[in-house]
Description:
Mean pLDDT: 81
CATH class of the largest domain: Alpha Beta
Number of strands: 24
Helix content: 10-25%
Strand order of the largest sheet: 2-3-6-7-10-13-14-15
Amino acid sequence: MPITRRGFLGTPLAALAPAALLGTAPEYHFHHDHVLGTSLDLVLSGHALSQDEASAAETAMFAEVNRLTRILNTRDPQSDISRGVSSRELTEVLAAYEEWHTRTSGAISSRLGGKLNVDALGKSYIIDRAIRAATSAAPHAEGSLLNIGGDIVVRGRSPRTIGVAHPAGADNSEPLTHIRIADGAAATSGTSERGAHIVDPRTGSPVTGARNVTVVAPDSVTANALATACCVLSHDQGIALVDRTPGAAALVIAPNGATLRSARFGAVERATIRTIGSAADWPTGFELAVTVTLKEIQGFRVHRPYLAVWAEDSSGRLVRSIAVWASKPRWMAELHTWWSQAGGRESLFSITKPTRPPGKYRIVWDGLDDAGHPVPEGTFHIAVETNREHGDYAKVTGTIECGAKPARIGMKETGEFEPVVVDYGPRAQNA
Length: 431
């Protein structure tokens, strides 16, 4: 099963993100929201790896994330960087910024608007060291993957297939393409998730030169630096910079949808780029979008819930499992109502995409049923069901008319998620 850099629950963690199976080795998944302002997924695999050892790796990983956050978080007035306290880690991050400031002719800087800002490379620095802490605590792990907000690092003997999120897609959309990473990292920057938020340090103005840039490199800091630089520089300058960087490859998606590849990208790409289709029997370009925002629930061991979103026809017959997220297929039965109707298993995958807000997911139905056939216009029941490990169960439903005109409904808040919004109408152009 491929992985994608969008999210990682079992759907762009994407979709959400699960992981490709490594032979017959046991695989352990850990999912959390609201980590570094986004979501986190850790996957460990190994024939001799035990649950206790995998849990120890999770603990070590979180300890390192929390330690480094206390040093590098510019939004925390008590952090080392906010108080002006020097440390080895801060020195290393600032040195990385100086290196990339020189290599990009000023396209990357630790000072934006006159203020110290190490968020981009600081996050990547944390990711690189967090996966190192996890693998050190799990000597029997043969492979590991850490995905924080779409920045992914893979370590170990077995490569992973990672999906590159479609810039116009939803959290359950098929990836735009796939890349194969063996002991490396992937990062994506661009405007598809948060608009023109990347600033050119040389001018102080937001940049709009690329819709998305995905970079594969030996480590997360290098991948993130190159992805950001490719958004600031011209396409030719960015691709040339990637080609000069050992072990790096890039896919650039221009604002008009055109794609450019660096010289080495073909060596890591594993699929043909595809587009997202639309339902034949709905008005041209119409889709149904379900926006689910999972609540932040305090606690070190709080896990993201298993989640199913599906559509039933007016008679109550399941016509489409729109998204099903769970760390392992065997836990899908905990989504009782969906499971009783579907009685089967869904594919899981993991995606790379620009960082998006924690816990908020946009799930799209294209108007096809589970067999891939278009459904007619009419009345449909939309259901959202969650069941959290060591937590609570929740389910809501709503009825919406999918016809010639746009429509919107809301579904009530629960202890697990905020009020759900369902929109039917023309496809969002920059979802």
